[in-house]
Amino acid sequence: MKIRLLLLLALLITPSIALAVGQDEPAIYVIKQGDTLWGLSERFIKDPKYWPNMWSKNSQVTNPHFIYPGQKLRIFPDRLEFVPIEQTTEQRAAVPAQKPASATEVAVAIQEVAAEKTYTLYGTEGFLADKGFRPYGFVVGVQHDRIVAGVDDIVYTDIGSDQNAGGGDKFSVYRKDVSVNHPLNNEDMGFKMIPLGTLQLTDVERKSSRAIITKSHLEISPGAYLLPYKENRRREIALKSSTSDLKGYIIESYKGVNTIAAGDVVYIDLGTGQGAAVGNMLYIVRDVTIDQRYVEGRIDKLPQELLGALVIIETGKKTSTALVVKSIDTIYKGDRIVSQTK
Questions:
Q1: What b/e sequence results for 234-273 when a residue is b if at least 16 CB atoms lie within 10 Å of its CB, and e otherwise?
Q2: Residue 56 main-chain phi, psi, to 5 deg
């Protein structure tokens, strides 16, 4: 009776795993909606950091957050392997089909494909501006000669009717922050622009205006940059495949620190000029070096160490702002980023 109860319990808690006959045969797991390589590694290998091995050894999985329901996974005691499959209706919905699919096929595919992965932004991530960047105007003073202003405070700007500005016009307020040099070659990459809030013009003269602060993330002081209004609101960024082979570096972090982890905002040396686009996922890698004192003969280049991944959330011509969405080891300024791992 006890044995029967244990067998029944095992069947109840592992409904998605089909156990093959024989001790040498792996168990088979069928991918469900919402599964990720990270979660599968943690569940079956008890090591969430195992997922890069699955990722690198399965060419059919180009995105660790975008695997398909119905794919089969072999579960060994020490590893996980995807069962090779032919291109199915589900895959045709995710990549351009060789021939048009029927309306029924497409409808079924849309229902069965894993939900698209998105990342939430809050509009306070900032960006890198090149050294020739000029703002639309400046905050030139705060009412009562104060040096800082917040929500509902009155400030003065050098924007006037000569610039076709009028009462009610809104502007985004930024602080010009530190200059950024490339960590590898010391090239001047521009300077950080940190969003402070928004203001709205109330009274406009020919070359100046009075304004009220309508939103503030940080304190606003004279000298703050004014740019055409950009609504800083919560928004979703969906993943998008890169159209070219992207290679670059992390050159700075929003916090200005050297040590970077998941959830941090960083700036990279790739922009629209290099083919980067909002939604591109890039993988963070580092070359592996060994102590040559313990080596005899020639050693070929070692496999790169996979550190994590980031998603581009805003692009400039030469640089972009990105969100680190996964880190499996410590990430530093100067670490490499690539669109494809080897």
A1: eeebebeebeeebebbbbbbbeeeeebeeebbbbbbbbee
A2: -75, -25
Q: Using CA atoms, how far apart are residues 265 and 255, in angstroms rounded to an integer?
A: 8
Domain ranges across the chain: 2-84, 127-228, 239-338
For domain 2-84, the CATH architecture is Roll (3.10)
Per-residue pLDDT of the chain (342 residues; tens, 9 = 90+): 444 444 443 333 333 333 333 445 677 777 776 677 767 777 776 765 566 665 555 545 545 545 666 777 777 777 777 776 544 444 434 433 333 333 333 333 333 333 445 666 667 788 999 888 899 999 999 999 999 999 999 999 999 999 999 999 999 999 999 999 999 999 999 999 999 999 999 999 999 999 999 999 899 999 999 999 987 666 777 777 777 889 999 999 998 888 999 889 999 999 999 999 998 889 999 887 776 666 666 666 677 788 888 999 999 999 999 999 888 888 999 999 998 755
Q: How far apart are CA 249 and CA 269, in angstroms?
A: 6
Pairing of strands 188-204, 170-181: antiparallel
Residue type, 53: N
User: Model pTM?
Assistant: 0.64
- CATH classification of 127-228 is 2.40.10, yes or no? yes
